[in-house]
C-alpha cells in the first residue's frame, strides 16, 4: 500500500512578523521555515499506519520554492520512505485552487496512492481549503479534521474518528480517499540522527508544476499587522475598594455589565 502525505513549508509560529515598508508585504528575510505543524501530525499518522501494516510506504510531497526541499528532508528524517518536490518559485502566490490542482497532478504521476493525508490547515493562511480542492481534483472522497485513523487493508477502507460536540463521530470511507489530520491521538516524532544522515543521501525528484487550466493568481492588496492592544490599567488601594472600582469601570466605561 502507498500513502502520500502532502505538506507545506510555513514560517515558524515563533517568528516575529514584520511588514516591509517598501512593498507593504510580510518581510520574509529573517523567517525560520518549518513543516506546517498540522502536517507533522499527518506524517506521524502515516508512519504509524505503516508500522501497523508491513509493506506500506509513505511518500512526502510538497509544492513550493527551492527552499521547501528542507521540509522534505525533515520528513525523510522523521521516517518517510520517499519524497517528491513540485518546485515553483511562484508557489507562494498560488491560490488554493491551483495548489490542489498541482498536487493532484503530482500525486497521479507518482502514484498510484491508496491514501493521502494532509494537515487540517496551514498555520500561515489558515484557509483549510487546499486538501478539499485536492480531493476534488483526484475525484476521491475525503474526511476532514480527524485526530485518529484506522486502516483495514483487507476491507479496503479507513475508519476515521473525530470529535463533534458532545460525541465522537465514526466515519468509514472506502479507499482511495483523502483525510485531513488534526492534533489529537499522537505527538509527532523527532527526526533521528540516523534518519537525518539517510535523508541527506536520499534523492528527491523535482517535478514541474505545469500550467494547464491554471486559475488566475490572487492579488494581494496589502498585508498589515493586527492593531495593538490598549494598555491595561492597574487599580490601587484595598481589595474591597479596587473591586468596587472595577465593577464601576466595567459597568460605566466598558459597558460589559
UniProtKB/TrEMBL annotation:
<keyword id="KW-0249">Electron transport</keyword>
<feature type="domain" description="Electron transfer flavoprotein alpha/beta-subunit N-terminal">
    <location>
        <begin position="23"/>
        <end position="216"/>
    </location>
</feature>
<keyword id="KW-0813">Transport</keyword>
<dbReference type="InterPro" id="IPR014730">
    <property type="entry name" value="ETF_a/b_N"/>
</dbReference>
<dbReference type="InterPro" id="IPR033948">
    <property type="entry name" value="ETF_beta_N"/>
</dbReference>
<protein>
    <recommendedName>
        <fullName>Electron transfer flavoprotein subunit beta</fullName>
    </recommendedName>
</protein>
<comment type="similarity">
    <text>Belongs to the ETF beta-subunit/FixA family.</text>
</comment>
<dbReference type="InterPro" id="IPR014729">
    <property type="entry name" value="Rossmann-like_a/b/a_fold"/>
</dbReference>
<dbReference type="Pfam" id="PF01012">
    <property type="entry name" value="ETF"/>
</dbReference>
<dbReference type="GO" id="GO:0009055">
    <property type="term" value="F:electron transfer activity"/>
</dbReference>
<dbReference type="InterPro" id="IPR012255">
    <property type="entry name" value="ETF_b"/>
</dbReference>
Amino acid at each position: 500500500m502507498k500513502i502520500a502525505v502532502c505538506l507545506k513549508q510555513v514560517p515558524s509560529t515563533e517568528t516575529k512578523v514584520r511588514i516591509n515598508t517598501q512593498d507593504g508585504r510580510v518581510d520574509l528575510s529573517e523567517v525560520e521555515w518549518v513543516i506546517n505543524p498540522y502536517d507533522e501530525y499527518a506524517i506521524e499518522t502515516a508512519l504509524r499506519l505503516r508500522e501497523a501494516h508491513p509493506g506500506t510506504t509513505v511518500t512526502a510531497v510538497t509544492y513550493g520554492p527551492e527552499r521547501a526541499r528542507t521540509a522534505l528532508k525533515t520528513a525523510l528524517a522523521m521516517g518517510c520512505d520517499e519524497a517528491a518536490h513540485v518546485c515553483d518559485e511562484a508557489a507562494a502566490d498560488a491560490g488554493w485552487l491551483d495548489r490542489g490542482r498541482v498536487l493532484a497532478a503530482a500525486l497521479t504521476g507518482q502514484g498510484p496512492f491508496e491514501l493521502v493525508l494532509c494537515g487540517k490547515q496551514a498555520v500561515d493562511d489558515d484557509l483549510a481549503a487546499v486538501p478539499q480542492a485536492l480531493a476534488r481534483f483526484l475525484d476521491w472522497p475525503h474526511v476532514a479534521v480527524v485526530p485518529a485513523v484506522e486502516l483495514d487493508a483487507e476491507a479496503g477502507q479507513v475508519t476515521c474518528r473525530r470529535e463533534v460536540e458532545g460525541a465522537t463521530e465514526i466515519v468509514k470511507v472506502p479507499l482511495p480517499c483523502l483525510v485531513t489530520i488534526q492534533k489529537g491521538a499522537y505527538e509527532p516524532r523527532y527526526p533521528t540522527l540516523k534518519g537525518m544522515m539517510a535523508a541527506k543521501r536520499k534523492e528527491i525528484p523535482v517535478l514541474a508544476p505545469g500550467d494547464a487550466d491554471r486559475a488566475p493568481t490572487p492579488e494581494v492588496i496589502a498585508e498589515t499587522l493586527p492593531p495593538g492592544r490598549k494598555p491595561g490599567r492597574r487599580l490601587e488601594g484595598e481589595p474591597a475598594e479596587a473591586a468596587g472600582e472595577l465593577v464601576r469601570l466595567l459597568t460605566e466605561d466598558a459597558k460589559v455589565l
